[in-house]
Specification:
The complex is a heterotrimer.
Chain A (H helix, E strand, L loop, with lengths): L39 H28 L12 H24 L3 H31 L8 H32 L9 H26 L1
Helix pairs in contact in A: 1-4, 1-5, 2-3, 2-5, 3-4, 4-5
Chain B lengths: L11 H6 L4 H31 L6 H6 L11 H37 L7 H20 L30 H30 L12 H32 L11 E2 L2 E2 L7 H35 L6 H14 L15 H29 L8 H24 L1 H7 L3 H31 L5 H27 L13 H4 L2 H31 L64
Antiparallel strand pairs in B: 1-2
Helix pairs in contact in B: 2-4, 2-5, 2-16, 4-5, 4-6, 4-7, 4-8, 4-13, 5-6, 6-7, 7-8, 7-9, 8-11, 8-13, 9-10, 10-11, 11-13, 11-14, 13-14, 14-16
Chain C lengths: L11 H23 L10 H34 L15 H30 L8 E8 L2 E6 L34 E4 L1 E5 L4 E7 L4 E5 L4 E5 L5 E5 L5 E7 L11 E7 L2 H13 L2
Parallel strand pairs in C: 1-5, 4-10
Antiparallel strand pairs in C: 1-2, 2-3, 5-8, 6-7, 6-9, 9-10
Helix pairs in contact in C: 1-2, 2-3
Classes of the chains: A mainly alpha, B mainly alpha, C alpha+beta.
Chain lengths: ~210, ~575, ~280
C-alpha cells in the first residue's frame, strides 16, 4: 500500500494517516493539530458525558418532582451504601495516582494503581448488589415505595454505566501492559479517568438525593 | 466506483454491506428510512380510508388482515394502533433517520473536506443498531394483541397500565425496545457527527465558512444529545411501571374493573413533561437539517448567495436553544399550572421570531435571483412555501387562549404535518435529486422529477390544508369514527376529499420510487464532477465519489459556500476552494 | 435585464409556481373568510373572547401568509434564469433585517398580551359566587355527572363504594349530605346564563372534557381534581366529546349537554332525575 504523504488537516491527526479504524489507534489520538484545540477522542468523550448527564438529569428531575407529591415514604438506606460510596471515591483517588504515575513514567505503579481502581470499581458494584439484597431481606422491593423504586432504578442505571467504565479501565490496563502509555501519550487513560470521575460525581449526586429524599 | 486513493480491494460484502465508508452507511440509512416511509405511508392510507368512510366494509382488506377487519369494517383498536405506529414510524424511523442518518452520514465528511467520519466503525454500528430498531418496531405490527395504541406520545397512565387490555402488552414492550435501540443508534451517530464537524474540517474551513447544511447537522446532533436521553429516562421509568409494579406515572386511586389498583404516588403529568422536554427539540431535530439543506440547494439554483448567512446561523442556534423552553405548549389544557401556561406562550411566540427571520432570508434569496427550475430547485422553493404554511398555524396553537379550542383537534394534525413531515420531506426530496449524481454517478430523470414535484406540491396542500378547517370545526384527533358526533357530520365531505387527495399523493410517490431505483442503474450518467455548478466541497469529487473522497491532497478552503454570481468572476459561481484572488467576500 | 439587475425570464415552471401560489391564496381566503365550514356555533360567554383571540391571530397570520406566499410566487415567476445572466450578488441588509425582526417581535408580543388577558380571565379569575357546581368523573368510556342536590352540599364519595350501579362511589348510606345528591350518566343539564364550576376527575387514564360549542376543553387527569368554570348562554342540546386518547372506546366516549332555557326547567330535570335514583 503506497504511503501517503503526511497531511496536516484542520484539527486532524498529525501522525501518518492510516485506514480509519473507528476507535482511534491504540496510542490515542491526542494530537490536536489545527484550529480545534481538542482531540477527536476527547470531543467524543464529552459528547458521551453530555448524553449521560441528560439521562441522569431526566431520572433525577422525575425524582425531585415526585418527592413533592404527598404520601412520599422514605425507606432507610442500607449503611453499606456509605461504604460503597467511600470505595468509589477511593477508586477515583487510585486512578488519579495512576495518572500521575504515568506522567512520571512509573510503569509498574501505573499498572498497580489502574488495577486497584478496577478492583475497587468492581468492589463498588458488588457492594451495590449486596445493598440490593439487604433491601430485599428487609422487605423493601422495587415497587414498595417511590423512594425505593428510585433507589433501585438510579443505582441500577448508574451501575450499568460504571460497569462500562470498568470495561474501559480494563482496556487501559491492557494498554499499560502493552507499554502503550507514555508520559507524553496516554490519552486513553485521561479519557477513562474523566469518565470515571464523572460517574463518581454522578453517584455522589444520586446518593445525596436518596439520603435527603 | 473510482478509488480516489489506493486502497486494498474489498470484497462485495465489506464494500457494499458491512462497510465503514460513510457514504455507504448514509445510503443504507436512506434506503432503510425509505422502506419505513412506505410502511408508515400505507398505515396512513388505511387510516384515511376509515376516516372518509367509517362504516364501510372492506372485504379485500379483511382477506389480507383478518384480525384487523373481522366482520368487515375496520376494528377500532386497529385504527388507533395504526395512528400510533404511523406516528412512531414516521417521526423516528423516517424523518429523524433520513435527515440525520442518511444525509448527515453522506454529506458531513464530503462537505468539510475529510475522508470519513471520526469513528467509522462506530458509524457502521450505529446503522446496524438502527436497522435492528426498525425490525423491532415493524414486528410490533404482527404480534398477538397487535401494535400499541396509545399514540406515538404514549401518555401515561394508559401506556403504563397493561391491566387494561392485551394490545398494550407485547406490542408496547416492543415499541419501548425499538425506541431504546433507536436512541442508542442516534447517540452513536451524534458522537460521530459532532466530533467530525468540530475536529476534522479541512484547512481554511472555519465555522463561518461552513454550508448551512453542516451548521444544521451539527446543531441538531447537539440537540439530539441533549434531548434523546431524557426520552430514554422516561422510557426506563415507564418500563418499570409496566413490568415492575412501580408508580412513577400512576397515581393512587386508579380504578379498573371496580377495583382500585395498588399504585401510589406517581403523576401522569410527569410523563408528559419528560416526553415533551424531548419531544419539542425532536421536532427541531427534524426541521433544522431540512432548513439547512433547503437553504443551500435554494442558493445553488437561484445562483445567488443565501441572504444573510450570518443571521441564518444565529437563528438556527436561537431556535435550537429556545426549543428547550417551549415544551409546555403541548400541555396547555393538560392540567399543568395555568401560570406555566402563560410562560410557555411567551417562549413559544419568541421562538417564532428566528423562524420568521429565516423566512425573510429565503425570500431575500429568491428576490433578484436567476432561478434554474430543476426538480431539486423546485423542491427547495416548495419547502419554503410549506414551512410558512405550517409555521403560521403554529402561532394559533402557541397562543394558549386560542389553543384551548384547537388542542387535540385536526388543527394540530395539520400544523405538525406541514412543518414536521411535509416541509422536511420536500427538503429531503430536493436533497435526493440534488446529490443523486454524487451518490450514484447518474442523474434522476428530470421530467419525472418535475411531475413528482408538481403533483406532490398540489397533493400535500390538498391533503393537509383542509385539515385546519376540520380542526376549527372541532374534529378531534385519533377518533375512529367522526360521524358518530352530530357536530362533525356536516364536515365529513372534507374528510372524503382529503382521503382521495391522500391516495393520489401516495400514488405519486410511486413515480419517485421508480425514478430513484431505476436511475441508480440506468439514469443518465454524470460526466463531470460538478453538474450543478455548486460551490461546496463535495462537488470537487467525482460523480460518484470514490472511497477516500478526495484525491491525494485534501482541499483547502478559501471562501464561504455562497459565492454565486460574484461580479467580475469568470464563472457565475466560485467554488470554496478557489483562492482569494477572485473577488472573495469572506 | 442585465447581470445582477432587474427581472429574469418568466419561465414555465416559475409561472406555474406563481399561479399555484395565487390559487393557494384564493383557496385560503375562501376557507378562512368565506368559511364554508367553521367553528361550532358559540354557546358560552368566555367563548367570545377566545374567538376574538383566534381572529386576531388569523388576521396577523393571514396577512403574513398572503404576503409571503404571494412574494414567493411572484419572485418565482419573475426571476427565472435568463441564459448565462448573473443574479444579484447582494446578500445582506442589516437594517431591513433588524426592522423586520423588531416588527415581528412587536406583533407577536401584542398577540401574547391579547391572548394572556383572555387566558387570565379564564384561569386566574375565580368563578362568581352564584356559580353552580357540578362534579364530572371521566372513565373508560363514559361520563358521570354528580350534582349536590337541594342541600347544596356534595355527599362523600369513596372509591371502595364503586360498583356497577354506583359509578362514583357515592356514600348514600353513610353521609346524610349524600342522600339528596343527583347522579346522571352521560347526560348533563345546565341552566342557561348561569356560571358553572366543573370539577373534573378521572378514574383511570387521562380523558379530556371537550365542549366544542362552549370553547371548553380540559384534561381530566387521574390523581388530580381540576376545576374550570364557564357560563353557557344559549339553550340547546350539545355534544360533549373526550379529546384525549383513552383507549379502545375513546371514539364513542361522548355525552350530551342540555342547556335548559330557564332555571325552572333545569330544576325540573334535577327533580325528575332524583326521583329515579
Amino acid at each position: 500500500m503506497p504511503v501517503l504523504t503526511e497531511e496536516k488537516k484542520h484539527g486532524g491527526v498529525i501522525a501518518p494517516p492510516r485506514e480509519p479504524t473507528g476507535f482511534g489507534n491504540g496510542d490515542g489520538d491526542d494530537a490536536a493539530g489545527g484550529s480545534f484545540p481538542v482531540s477527536k477522542a476527547r470531543v467524543a468523550m464529552w459528547v458521551v458525558l453530555t448524553a449521560v448527564t441528560m439521562l441522569f438529569a431526566g431520572l433525577t428531575s422525575a425524582y425531585i418532582v415526585l418527592r413533592g407529591v404527598p404520601g412520599w415514604q422514605h425507606v432507610p438506606l442500607p449503611p453499606l451504601l456509605w461504604v460503597n460510596t467511600l470505595t468509589l471515591i477511593a477508586s477515583s483517588v487510585t486512578l488519579e495516582i495512576a495518572r500521575r504515575s504515568v506522567l512520571g513514567n512509573r510503569q509498574q505503579a501505573v499498572k498497580l494503581w489502574l488495577g486497584s481502581s478496577g478492583v475497587l470499581g468492581l468492589g463498588f458494584l458488588a457492594g451495590q448488589v449486596a445493598a440490593w439484597r439487604e433491601l430485599v431481606r428487609a422487605g423493601v422491593y422495587l415497587p414498595s415505595t417511590l423512594h425505593s423504586s428510585f433507589l433501585y432504578v438510579l443505582t441500577g442505571v448508574h451501575g450499568v454505566h460504571l460497569l462500562g467504565g470498568v470495561i474501559g479501565l480494563t482496556y487501559v490496563l491492557w494498554l499499560a501492559y502493552q507499554h502503550r502509555l507514555t508520559p507524553v501519550r496516554h490519552e486513553p487513560l485521561r479519557l477513562c479517568s474523566l469518565y470515571w470521575h464523572f460517574m463518581d460525581a454522578v453517584w455522589i449526586y444520586i446518593f445525596v438525593l436518596l439520603v435527603l429524599g | 466506483m473510482q478509488d480516489s486513493h489506493a486502497h486494498p480491494q474489498l470484497g462485495f460484502w465489506r464494500k457494499y454491506v458491512f462497510s465503514t465508508d460513510h457514504k455507504v452507511i448514509g445510503l443504507q440509512y436512506l434506503i432503510t428510512a425509505m422502506s419505513m416511509a412506505i410502511v408508515g405511508g400505507i398505515l396512513s392510507l388505511l387510516m384515511r380510508l376509515q376516516l372518509a368512510w367509517p362504516a364501510e366494509l372492506w372485504p379485500s382488506l379483511e382477506r389480507l388482515m383478518p384480525v384487523a377487519f373481522e366482520g368487515g369494517p375496520m376494528k377500532p383498536e386497529f385504527y388507533i394502533s395504526l395512528v400510533t405506529m404511523h406516528g412512531t414510524i414516521m417521526v423516528f424511523f423516517l424523518f429523524t433517520a433520513v435527515l440525520t442518518g442518511g444525509f448527515r452520514n453522506f454529506l458531513i465528511p464530503l462537505q468539510i473536506g475529510a475522508r470519513d467520519m471520526a469513528f467509522p466503525f462506530l458509524n457502521a454500528l450505529s446503522y446496524w443498531v438502527f436497522l435492528l430498531s426498525c425490525i423491532v418496531i415493524f414486528s410490533a405490527l404482527f404480534v398477538t394483541g397487535g401494535a400499541p395504541y396509545g399514540g406515538w406520545t404514549a401518555y401515561a397512565p394508559l401506556s403504563a397500565l397493561t391491566a387494561i387490555g392485551s394490545n398494550q402488552d407485547v406490542g408496547m414492550t416492543l415499541w419501548l425496545a425499538a425506541i431504546a435501540l433507536f436512541t442508542a443508534s442516534g447517540l452513536m451517530g451524534g458522537l460521530n457527527y459532532i466530533t467530525t464537524i468540530l475536529t476534522m474540517r479541512t484547512k481554511g474551513l472555519s465555522m463561518m465558512r461552513l454550508p448551512l447544511t453542516q451548521w444544521s447537522l451539527l446543531i441538531t446532533a447537539i440537540l439530539g444529545l441533549l434531548a434523546f436521553p431524557v426520552l430514554l429516562a422516561a422510557a426506563i421509568l415507564l418500563v418499570f411501571d409496566r413490568t415492575g409494579g412501580t408508580s412513577f406515572f400512576v397515581p393512587a386511586g386508579v380504578i379498573m374493573n371496580y377495583q382500585e389498583l395498588s399504585y401510589s404516588g406517581g403523576h401522569p403529568l410527569l410523563w408528559q413533561h419528560l416526553f415533551w422536554f424531548f419531544g419539542h427539540p425532536e421536532v427541531y431535530i427534524v426541521i433544522l437539517p431540512a432548513m439547512g439543506m433547503a437553504s443551500d440547494i435554494l442558493s445553488a439554483f437561484c445562483r445567488k448567495p443565501i441572504f444573510s448567512y450570518r443571521m441564518m446561523v444565529y437563528s438556527m442556534v436561537a431556535i435550537a436553544a429556545l426549543s428547550f423552553v417551549v415544551w409546555g405548549h403541548h400541555m396547555f389544557v393538560s392540567g399543568m399550572s395555568p401560570f406555566l401556561g402563560s410562560v410557555f406562550t411567551l417562549t413559544t411566540l419568541l421562538i417564532a421570531v428566528p423562524s420568521a427571520i429565516k423566512t425573510f432570508n429565503w425570500l431575500g434569496t429568491v428576490w433578484g435571483a436567476r432561478i434554474r427550475f430543476t426538480s431539486a430547485g423546485l423542491f427547495a422553493i416548495g419547502f419554503v412555501s410549506l414551512f410558512v404554511s405550517g409555521g403560521l398555524s403554529g402561532i394559533f396553537l402557541g397562543t394558549s387562549a386560542a389553543d384551548i379550542e384547537l388542542q387535540d383537534t385536526y388543527f394540530v394534525v395539520a400544523h405538525f404535518h406541514l412543518v414536521m413531515a411535509i416541509a422536511p420531506l420536500f427538503a429531503a426530496f430536493g436533497g435526493l435529486y440534488y446529490w443523486f449524481p454524487k451518490m450514484f454517478g447518474r442523474f434522476m430523470n428530470e421530467t419525472l422529477g418535475k411531475i413528482h414535484f408538481w403533483l406532490s406540491f398540489i397533493g400535500v396542500y390538498a391533503v393537509f390544508f383542509p385539515m385546519h378547517v376540520l380542526g376549527i370545526g372541532g374534529q378531534m384527533r385519533r377518533i375512529y369514527d367522526p360521524t358518530s358526533y352530530n357536530f362533525l357530520v356536516e364536515q365529513q365531505p372534507v374528510n372524503v376529499f382529503i382521503t382521495i387527495a391522500a391516495f393520489v399523493l401516495g400514488a405519486t410517490q410511486l413515480i419517485f420510487l421508480a425514478n430513484f431505483f431505476v436511475s441508480i442503474f440506468a439514469g443518465k450518467r454524470a460526466t463531470e464532477n460538478n453538474p450543478w455548478k455548486a460551490t461546496t466541497l463535495e462537488w470537487q469529487t467525482p460523480c460518484p465519489t470514490g472511497h477516500g473522497n478526495f484525491g491525494p491532497e485534501l482541499p483547502t478552503v478559501h471562501r464561504w459556500a455562497f459565492d454565486y454570481s460574484v461580479p467580475g468572476a469568470p464563472d457565475d459561481f466560485v467554488p470554496q476552494t478557489a483562492p482569494a484572488v477572485v473577488a472573495a467576500k469572506h | 435585464m442585465a447581470d445582477g439587475k432587474g427581472p429574469g425570464r418568466m419561465t414555465l415552471n416559475g409561472l406555474v409556481f406563481g399561479v399555484l401560489m395565487a390559487v393557494l391564496i384564493i383557496v385560503s381566503l375562501w376557507l378562512f373568510i368565506g368559511r364554508p365550514y367553521w367553528f361550532p356555533d358559540l354557546a358560552s360567554v368566555h367563548g367570545a373572547d377566545i374567538d376574538s383571540v383566534f381572529m386576531a391571530v388569523l388576521v396577523v397570520t393571514g396577512v403574513a401568509f398572503v404576503v409571503v406566499q404571494g412574494l414567493l410566487g411572484f419572485f418565482a415567476a419573475r426571476y427565472g434564469a435568463q441564459g448565462g445572466e448573473r443574479a444579484a450578488y447582494w446578500h445582506d441588509n442589516p437594517k431591513a433585517e433588524a426592522f423586520l425582526l423588531i416588527v415581528t417581535a412587536v406583533i407577536l408580543t401584542v398577540l401574547v398580551f391579547m391572548g394572556q388577558r383572555v387566558w387570565a380571565s379564564i384561569y386566574f379569575t375565580d368563578a362568581p359566587a352564584d356559580a353552580l357546581e357540578v362534579r364530572v368523573t371521566a372513565e373508560q368510556f363514559q361520563w358521570s355527572f354528580h350534582y349536590p342536590g337541594p342541600d347544596g352540599v356534595f355527599g362523600r364519595t369513596d372509591n371502595k363504594l364503586i360498583t356497577a350501579t354506583n359509578n362514583i362511589g357515592l356514600d348514600r348510606e353513610g353521609d346524610p349530605a349524600a342522600k339528596d345528591d343527583i347522579f346522571s350518566l352521560n347526560v348533563m343539564h345546565l341552566p342557561a346564563n348561569r356560571p358553572v364550576k366543573v370539577r373534573l376527575r378521572s378514574k383511570d387514564v387521562i380523558h379530556s372534557f371537550f365542549l366544542p360549542h362552549h370553547r371548553v376543553k380540559q384534561d381530566a387527569v387521574p390523581g388530580m381534581a381540576i376545576q374550570i368554570w364557564f357560563t353557557p348562554n344559549r339553550p340547546g342540546q350539545y355534544e360533549l366529546a373526550c379529546a384525549e386518547l383513552c383507549g379502545l372506546g375513546h371514539y364513542r366516549m361522548k355525552a350530551t349537554l342540555v342547556v335548559d332555557p330557564s332555571q325552572e326547567e333545569y330544576n325540573k330535570w334535577l327533580q325528575e332525575t332524583a326521583a329515579q335514583q
